[in-house]
């Protein structure tokens, strides 16, 4: 069953066609990747898939539901969660509270329950804390639950972002360069975690990466963007050996501003 579908989406910023005619059909529990040089349009695709930008043309469906005109929170409610290329945590809040805040998006206690602290509020609060701790344990962050987010090492802040995205209980999770700025050990760790999120939590995953090596190990299917166009797609083996992909990464038009 299709959980995330982009049907021929394009977007224009003034004179720049940042993404042209992009399509994708992600089924339950699949792991796809979008790769391409800097400036190729990868993050712009995510921004369209999560309701931040409205495509100029084409349609997006989550779980078969047409999302035209919907706001980002409606994309979240429909089952989509994402991380950003640049870390976006509540730095002055604890690790646990960062996760609980994301969880509470899906809870069914209302503002009145919260003010009056009814029994329902307390049982809901307990449930959220337990669920948050389960995710923190999976990511080996449980011992740091009371740390302020900004006191975590960089690699753990990136992991906490993934935990926060998972806390909204999505069907699909979109990761924008999850390994950016990480050292090789941290990259291996995050690669294993992404695979566990797919296999153990049963999520469909879409990963953006600038570096090909990481996704070659985990992606089942890859779309390659360059200057907003899909220049290649298929299995890692196919894409890796496609002369057009090699050219985009190593070839003539790669200049300083895109490196
Ligand atoms: N809001 C915007 N307004 C104008 N141009 C934009 C906007 N967002 C992205 N772009 C342009 O779209 C192109 C693709 O950017 P981006 O999607 O961030 O690339 P990538 O994530 O592949 O590195 C770039 O040329 C970028 O400057
Ligand atoms: Mg980007």
Question: How would you describe what is shown here?
Answer:
By secondary structure, this protein is an alpha/beta fold. It has two domains: 2-79 and 170-258, Rossmann fold, CATH 3.40.50.300; 91-162, no CATH class. Helices cover 39% and strands 24% of the residues. It contains ten helices and ten strands. The strands form two sheets. It has a six-stranded mixed beta sheet, sandwiched between helices. Strand 1 and strand 2 (16-27) form a beta hairpin. It starts with a strand and ends in a 9-residue tail after the last helix. Mean pLDDT is 91; it is low at 254-259.
Roughly how much helix do the residues carry, as a percent range? 25-40%
Q: Strands across the major sheet, in which order? A: 6-7-8-3-9-10
Order of helices and strands: EEEHEEHEHHHHEHEHEEHH
Return the CATH topology of the largest domain.
Rossmann fold
* Discrete helix count: 10
Domain tally: 2
Average of per-residue pLDDT values: 91
Per DSSP E runs of 2 or more residues, the count of β-strands stands at: 10
CATH class of the largest domain: Alpha Beta
Radius of gyration: 19 Å
List segments where confidence is low: pLDDT < 50 over at least 5 consecutive residues. Answer: 254-259
Q: Please outline the major beta sheet.
A: 6 strands, mixed
Class derived from helix and strand content: alpha/beta
Termini gap: 37 Å
- What's the CATH H-level homologous superfamily of the largest domain? P-loop containing nucleotide triphosphate hydrolases
Ions and ligands: adenosine-5'-diphosphate, magnesium ion
Organism: Flexilinea flocculi
Keywords: ATP-binding, Nucleotide-binding, Transport
GO molecular function, one term: ATP binding
Protein name: Amino acid/amide ABC transporter ATP-binding protein 1, HAAT family
């Amino acid at each position: 069953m299709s959980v995330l579908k982009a049907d021929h989406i394009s977007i224009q910023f003034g004179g720049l066609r940042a993404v042209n005619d992009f399509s994708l059909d992600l089924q339950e529990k699949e792991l796809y990747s979008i790769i391409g040089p800097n400036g190729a349009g990868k993050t712009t695709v995510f921004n369209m898939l999560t309701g931040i930008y409205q495509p100029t043309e084409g349609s997006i469906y989550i779980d078969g539901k047409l999302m035209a005109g919907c706001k980002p929170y409606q994309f979240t409610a429909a089952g989509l969660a994402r991380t950003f290329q640049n870390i976006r945590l509540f730095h002055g809040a604890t690790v646990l509270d960062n996760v609980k805040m994301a969880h509470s998006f899906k809870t069914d206690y209302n503002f009145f329950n919260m003010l009056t602290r009814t029994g329902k509020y307390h049982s809901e609060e307990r449930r959220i804390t337990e669920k948050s701790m389960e995710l923190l344990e999976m990511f080996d962050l449980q011992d740091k639950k009371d740390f302020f987010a900004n006191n975590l090492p960089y690699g753990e802040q990136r992991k906490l972002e993934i935990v926060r995205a998972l806390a909204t209980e999505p069907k699909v999770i979109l990761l924008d360069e999850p390994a950016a700025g990480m050292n090789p050990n941290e990259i291996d760790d995050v690669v294993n975690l992404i695979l566990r999120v797919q296999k153990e939590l049963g999520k469909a995953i879409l990963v953006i990466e600038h570096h090909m090596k990481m996704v070659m190990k985990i992606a089942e299917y890859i779309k390659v963007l360059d200057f907003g166009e899909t220049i290649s797609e298929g299995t890692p083996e196919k894409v890796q050996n496609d002369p057009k992909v090699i050219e985009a990464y190593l070839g003539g038009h790669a200049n300083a501003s895109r490196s």
